[in-house]
Write a structure and sequence with these properties.
alpha/beta, Rossmann fold, Dihydrodipicolinate Reductase, domain 2, 6-stranded parallel sheet, 6-stranded mixed sheet, 12 helices
Length: 351
């Protein structure tokens, strides 16, 4: 039985908690969040040890027998929470970005290397069914040599939350020192990580940032990457200017190769509601025969959170280092590229 401590019980923290409840051999021992409402929700699902300060949870983690810390708190708190969790001897799963600066990420890499603990960054897009299929096909040579990746993801940003997200938006979202930046570090970090996942290490060739809403950070970004490992280049487009709808997701990846191409649209369900009904029926059948359901499998993005966390916890159980999920080094590389993109934009010329 793996015992888990949840650090942060906001939207993503609750999602991780629900996913843990549907996994065999996992027990949530404690949760920490400054919100009384959030702690009340955690208590309602059976979490007994509740803390308003995550420092207290980590101080008592070992005495409670906690094995794993799941970190889902604001960006600027990641660095300290990760360091303290590793010092407490815990395996750590953290939401992206791993930290807000390259310097902090390098320290985390060093700490992970010397801790002997399992560690993974929640770049959940690696676990999208669509991406898994595209990566498998690419590795088998279906499109020949990869030449160009085009990737885009447009959403509504923190200042126009969809239903179910907190209102009003927390102040830290509007402090670039606490977020590490705008849409590029938020949504862009997923796509930068995917470029590395498909094409290997890279450098920034071009970066252009938009400030449509006159905020202290960018709400749109286009960057071009060049792979060190191949001739592949990547065009990444992210934005925070479009209202998100539950049944649609403005995200796509196209891989252009010397023998053909693949587009993510070809791997995603055409009829969302029909697909959701089928997945719901499968879960009903699983429940009837006493098996664990696959929570939120009707929505590919949400299902990826379940798959990535299950993968990490299985690695901890089996004493294996995560190979598919983003490592501390992957977390560092993503922030290095993002920092380079910010510098390139400020300098108004390619690096």
């Amino acid at each position: 039985m793996l015992k888990v401590g949840l650090i942060g019980y906001g939207n993503i923290g609750r999602l991780h908690a629900m996913n843990c409840l549907h996994m065999d051999g996992i027990k949530i021992i404690a949760a920490a969040d400054p919100s009384k409402k959030a702690l009340k929700e955690a208590k309602s699902i059976g979490v007994r040890k509740l803390y308003s300060d995550y420092h207290d949870l980590l101080t008592h983690a070992k005495s409670m027998g906690i094995d794993v810390a799941i970190i889902s708190i604001p960006n600027f708190l990641h660095f300290e929470a990760i360091q303290l969790a590793l010092e407490a001897g815990l395996n750590v799963f953290t939401e992206k970005p791993m930290a807000t600066t390259v310097r902090e990420c390098r320290i985390i890499v060093h700490s992970v290397d010397h801790s002997g603990q399992k560690f993974m960054v929640g770049h959940n897009f690696r676990f999208l069914n669509t991406i898994e299929k595209m990566k498998g096909a690419l590795d088998k040579g279906y499109i020949g040599n990869l030449e160009v990746l085009t990737m885009e993801m447009i959403g509504n940003g923190p200042f126009s939350h969809a239903a179910g997200k907190p209102k009003p938006v927390s102040d830290w979202w509007f402090d670039s020192k606490k977020t590490g930046g705008g849409v590029l570090i938020d949504k862009g970090s997923h796509l930068v990580d995917l470029f590395r996942y498909f094409a290997g290490d890279a450098k920034v060739l071009f970066s252009s940032l938009d400030y449509k809403f006159n905020l202290p950070f960018e709400d749109g970004a286009i960057i071009i990457l060049d792979s060190y490992n191949s001739f592949a280049k990547g065009i990444i487009n992210v934005g925070w200017y479009q209202k998100e709808n539950f049944a649609t997701f403005d995200f796509r990846v196209i891989l252009h190769g010397t023998a053909g191409f693949m587009a993510s649209d070809s791997f995603t369900p055409i009829h969302f509601y029909l697909y959701a009904m089928k997945e719901g029926t499968k879960n009903l059948f699983r429940r009837m025969i006493g098996k664990k359901i696959h929570p939120l499998s009707y929505l590919e993005v949400h299902e990826s959170y379940y798959k990535e966390l299950r993968y990490f916890l299985d690695c901890v159980k089996q004493d294996l280092n995560p190979l598919i999920g983003a490592s501390a080094v992957d977390g560092l590389k993503a922030i290095e590229l993002i920092e380079d993109a910010y510098k390139a934009s400020r300098n108004s010329h390619p690096l």
